[in-house]
Amino acid sequence: MDWEQDLAAAVTEGEEIRAEELARAALEEGAAPREVLEKGAVAGIYQTGRLWEEGDYFLPDVILSIEAFNKVMEMVEPLLAGEVASTKGKVVLGSVEGDAHDLGKNIVAAMLRSSLYEVIDLGIDVGAERFVEAARDLHPDVIGLGAYMTTTMRNMEGVITALREAGLRDCVKLIIGGAPVTADYAERIGADGYGADAVGAVALVDRLLGVS
Fold first, then answer.
1. Which of 51, 80, 109 is where one domain is finished?
2. Angle, CA of 101, 102 and 107, to the nearest 5°
3. Please, where are the H alpha helices in 81-196?
4. The total number of structural domains that make up the chain
5. Quick one: DSSP state of residue 122?
């Protein structure tokens, strides 16, 4: 196997140390940083997404894979700083007010980054006004809201209302996701889309922005 296949496999299999070693070796041999990212780490995390979608991978497998991916990103990102930006768009993510869960959001963030989106993660327990500030100050293409309990998903509608009252709702696409959330609920509260899982979320963002 060449380094591309080896690195992709290390990321998919969650071998954090091996992924770091392979990425470093590839860079030392003259591989371009973006090539290491796209042909190695991104290819690996996409394979993880497929295995997750097909039911062959479970949360522990995905978490290990994301950690390996992030380790490569930590190494490569500073080397990309001088390159012309080629991101597909800017996405703001956050778990809504009252919700301290973030595993699903973190998986979505990793998958979006691997798909060359700029991601700003606001974290957990994010109030409506914070999302409004992000829309106003950061000018994202998409805002993604996560809720992982039925008691917090109602706060998603509050974010949409706050964006509308601030005159910003039409300036950004808004998507939602999380265990209790459904496509019907997304339509009912006026969201632009619903992602059933991380792979679906990336596909949804691609579709909303007309990119691939």
1. 80
2. 145
3. 103-114, 128-138, 150-165, 183-189
4. 2
5. -
Cα separations (Å) of 47 from 14, 55, 81? Answer: 12, 12, 26
Distance from chain centroid for Cα 14: 18
Residue 177 lies inside a defined structural domain of this protein: yes
**Alpha carbon distance, N-terminus to C-terminus of the chain:** 28
Amino acid letter for position 17: I
| Predicted confidence (pLDDT) per residue in 119-161, tens digit | 999 999 999 999 999 999 999 999 999 999 999 999 999 999 9
Which residue reads 């969650």 in tokens? 14
Cα–Cα distance list, 65 to 5, 13, 74 (Å): 15, 6, 14
Domain final residue, candidates 59, 80, 101: 80
pLDDT (tens digit per residue) in 54-84: 889 988 998 899 899 989 988 988 887 655 4
Residue 85, in any domain of the structure: no
Residue burial 124-138, b: 16+ Cβ < 10 Å; e: rest: bbbbbebbbebbeee
Q: Who's near 60: CB < 8 A, 6+ residues apart?
A: none
